Amino acid sequence: MFSSFSSPFKLARKGIMGMNQRNIGYIARYNPRKLFPLVDNKLKTKIIAERDQVTVPQLIGVVRTQHDVNSVVDILRKHPGFVIKPAKGSGGKGILVITKQEDGNFFKPSGSVATEEDIKRHCSNILAGLFSLGGSADVAVIEALIEFDPCFEGFSFEGVPDVRVIVFQGYPVMAMMRLSTAASDGKANLHQGAVGVGIDIGTGKALHAVQFDRPVSEHPDTGRVLSELAVPHWERLLELSASCYEMSGLGYLGTDMVLDQSNGPMLLELNARPGLAIQIANGEGILPRLRMVEKLKRDGIEHSPQERVEFSKQQFSRL
Amino acid sequence: MASRKFFYLIVSLCMLIGGLMTYHRHITFEVPWLPGEKRQIWSIEGKVELDAVGEPVSVSLALPSTQQGFTRLTETTASLAYGLSFVDEPGDYRAIWTKREAQGHQEMYYKVDFLVDPKAVDIYQPEAPQALYTEYPEPYQTAAKHLIEQTQQLSADAYSFTRELLKALSDASSANQNTDLLLGYKPLNQLTVELLNNAEVPARIVRGLSLEDGRRRQTLTEYIQVFQDENEWQIFDLATGQQGRPGNTLLWEYNGNSLLEVQGGQNSRVSFSMLLQDRSARSAVAPKIQRADLLNFSIDSLPLEEQALFKGILLIPIGVLIVVLLRVLVGVKTSGTFMPVLIAVAFMQTSLVTGLVGFLLVVGTGLIIRGYLSHLNLLLVSRISAVIITVIGIISIFSVLSFSIGLTEGLKITFFPMIILSWTIERMSVLWEEEGPKEVLLQGGGSLAVAVLAYLAMNNEYVRHLTFNFLGIQLIILGIILLLGNYTGYRLLELRRFSPLANKDD
Questions:
Q1: CB-CB neighbors (< 8 A) of B496 in chain A
Q2: pLDDT above 70 for A135
Q3: Which pLDDT score, from 0 to 100, does residue B111 have?
Q4: Do B496 and A18 touch (CB under 8 A)?
Q5: Which residues on A lie below 8 Å from B435 (Cβ)?
Q6: Residues A34 and A181 in one domain
Q7: Mean pLDDT of all residues belonging to chain A
Q8: Of A111, A144, A177, at which residue does a domain stop?
Q9: What ipTM does the predicted assembly reach?
Q10: CA angle B408-B410-B414, nearest 5°?
Q11: CA of B444: how far to CAs of A132, B237, B330, B418, B429, in Å?
Q12: Could you say which of B379, B495, B500 has the minimum Cβ distance to residue A214?
């Protein structure tokens, strides 16, 4: 049992960041508390993203009161596919995805049917705060469905694969792709069993993949070889995520990006407390990269978003 | 960086003040570090007896004070319809019993507890008496003079003179004519003091009580107190000539005052009985602490009921510390940050096994009922309220059931905080729906494990003793928690989580 524990000095030598260090050294130091609502509330994130012309999925509507719930179906009829999510939800809770409508019924990605009543009840639950932190009252955000790029066919089971990029002081320092699996129930959360694939910052190609914190080489459901994975529009995606620094003001930021077939990279949501699993997916500690950026700042060097992406691509490329 | 310095300053201040408070309390009030420590207490009862002759009676008894080796704790008196007053003049502490008229046999009791206390010192410095010259008739005068001259030649100072004199007076083998003559004239105690005084050595007779467990009807033993100069004196044993305070002896009176003064009575006498008690150190020093002033900030000054309440409150930081340790250093997942502490507090009241069984019963049943409630699709506040009422229902049913089958232990289930239980059920239930039963077991088990650990720490005899008696400990815990809040190292479970990374080849 103890052989599976490694020495803390070894971890430190590899530059692996632990939870305590993340909380004190990065989140508390670089993320001002007053900016948290901007990222904890997806509606607010959307508003500042649109202000700064950061591409986001189209907003179909917002359900703010129980009264709105009754009229929501009429609006939804005009859109074949859509996503209903709680503005203050966390960890992918309470996200309802509808891919198509037939005969007045709504279909989930798994093929199961949701009735009008189910949609309304889901909205009511969101409003009551069922999915928000601490159960506070919430609003339901309805977005257009992302038609994800067919190049990811076979890499994901049911869910939309997304790309998590850690942006530190505006520099994209580490990236991974999260692929949902049958074990994760179509959700892209690593602790629920999604596959995390470390993505090379320089090229957008797969580096290394893990499921449940242990290395894997193929997608457990589709059997596709994960090392073949390559993210298209990589340059654009990095620039988009780098610009989220100016947009949000948060120094240590997790940006969740998706690739839409027609619109290219889009910002899905921001996270002010990005997790540590990205290190395992990349097979590398994040601290040396963070320290490199900190040194840059100490030396008083200021870069534009494009320059920052260039810097990161040069410094953090592993292929 | 300046704020970091300030932080460490605050932490070190907390630790320092806490440590000093703790140490001060240990030194000044002798609150022991360990709860099991026993301290010895002598309970001594003095009994004054006399035969009253129908006149106003006044009885004045010299009383002992805190002195080298003994600290006086509590004292009580008893008598039949006597007025009582204590006179406390420096060096003369007495109890005075008075009565307008009394006839026949009279008894008065004085009971005092003395703590065997190696750190105690004399609170009164006795004054040296005048060395008055006593003229003896011949042939005793010549014999005395001769003996004094003889002894002076063998000695250097007052103490050695006393030693030699006592040796000469007690040494039967050397059968000195002079000493035989003198001892035939006066009793040993009186003779010794007079001879010392005639040699210009201030001395007097004092009385001590030889302490032996369970002895009754004891009288005081006489000793000679010899002054080297104004403030320096020694006790000499008349019988053995031994110098220094006799072991296990309480000096009842050593200031040159009379032991017992009686007016309006005859055949007065005082006798003593004594008992040695082993008391827990805490209760032994309690009276000593209670006399403490405001500066000695302590919960002992509160009424007993509030003290009991505070004892519980003062343990909570221990539970909180355990939670912080387990979360920051180990990385245990719990449902609700401090829920385990509240559960641990409940365990303190119910005892561990009853508490665990009760907790699992209530939460398990609650989860089943909550599962049904979730089908009703209620608003959050109503749902939690419904769960609270359900929990109360479950607790009542279990209490009544266990009582009717004769398990009074089951009644303790009511000690659980119901709102906390309801939230626990709600959280677990949401967790079950979203993350599956595995995560419920993980977080629920984590919470329970932390709660059990916190309970074991809070229920530990040593921990309880330390937190009750040393408020400074709280500051030290605060300092530790502040320091832990600054810990950026790895958690124990992260060492396992990241082990594939560490073992990966470069």
A1: 4-6
A2: no
A3: 87
A4: no
A5: 192
A6: yes
A7: 88
A8: A144
A9: 0.80
A10: 115
A11: 21, 73, 16, 17, 11
A12: B500
